[in-house]
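User: Design a sequence. Structure:
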């Protein structure tokens, strides 16, 4: 597991996401994610790979009992400081999503994992853990870069302007290859900070979910909100071709070990 990039930029990430999420979260990815999450009041919610916990706090404010888990100790430290300043009853754990032994079987109504599965090295084991900790008929809602249209290093935009027409193309190669790529973020203390992104084809996600007893029940491709369109140069492009997806999967049977 490589999380040192997240450790290095924990302070920046916490300030950047704050209490509401950044533009990409707030105005593009979160609206369909929150719609699928639905009413959370009175529910047990696990925020898996919770980062600075801004979604954990949102759910807790809506009356959910929330546990947040992240592999980065510095990020969890920041989430805990926010909890200390404004107590909402959230418990945070530092743990790899693939090994959630501190959580009991069958306790959560809802597991959320926002823009993190692509960071998780052992995503198959994380899926098995999600299936284990969910109640029967419990739901997992997660977002990730769209496997068909976004792959670090081998996908990109091609904006073709042949007056009077603008055509938006999204290029993608090496789709079927399960690869890991370094994602450059920023410089902290004179050092380049990278995280790792794992690309898996869409069929891999569906197959692995099914092997864990999780059936896909919804699939969304976030469309830019007015706020995103106004603020991001990528807004009109993403309005045509989605670079993220949000998946809901329900626990339908006892979990099994993925192939
Ligand atoms: C892009 S951030 C998303 C954080 C948060 N869900 C959000 O939407 O702001 C990815 C997160 O995944 C966490 N992460 C990476 N690998 C992990 C693993 N194996 N287990 C748990 N968390 C992990 C990182 O520490 C980081 O907080």
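Assistant: Done.
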């Amino acid at each position: 597991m490589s999380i040192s990039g997240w450790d290095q930029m924990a302070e920046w990430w916490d300030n950047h996401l704050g209490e509401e999420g950044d533009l990409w979260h707030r105005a593009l990815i979160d609206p369909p994610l929150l719609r699928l999450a639905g009413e959370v009041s009175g529910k047990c919610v696990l925020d898996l790979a919770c980062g600075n916990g801004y979604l954990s706090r949102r759910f807790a404010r809506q009356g959910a009992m929330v546990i947040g888990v992240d592999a980065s100790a510095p990020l969890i430290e920041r989430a805990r400081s926010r909890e200390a300043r404004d107590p909402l009853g959230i418990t945070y754990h530092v743990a790899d999503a693939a090994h959630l032994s501190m959580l009991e079987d069958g306790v959560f109504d809802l597991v959320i994992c926002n823009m993190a599965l692509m960071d998780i090295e052992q995503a198959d084991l994380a899926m098995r853990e999600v299936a284990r900790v969910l109640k029967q008929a419990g739901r997992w809602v997660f977002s990730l870069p769209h496997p068909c249209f976004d792959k670090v290093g081998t996908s990109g935009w091609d904006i073709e302007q042949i007056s009077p027409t603008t055509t938006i193309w999204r290029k993608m190669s090496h789709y079927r290859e399960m690869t890991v790529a370094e994602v450059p973020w920023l410089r902290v203390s004179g050092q380049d900070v990278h995280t790792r992104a794992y690309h898996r084809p869409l069929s891999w996600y569906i197959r692995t979910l099914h092997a864990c007893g999780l059936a896909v029940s919804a699939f969304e491709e976030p469309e830019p909100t007015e706020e995103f369109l106004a603020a991001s140069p990528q807004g009109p492009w993403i309005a045509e071709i989605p670079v993220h997806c949000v998946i809901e999967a329900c626990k339908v049977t006892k979990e099994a070990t993925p192939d």
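Residues 1, 3, 6, 17, 25, 49-51, 70-72, 75, 96-98, 114-116, 119-121 surround S-adenosylmethionine (CB under 6 Å). The two ends are 20 Å apart (CA to CA).
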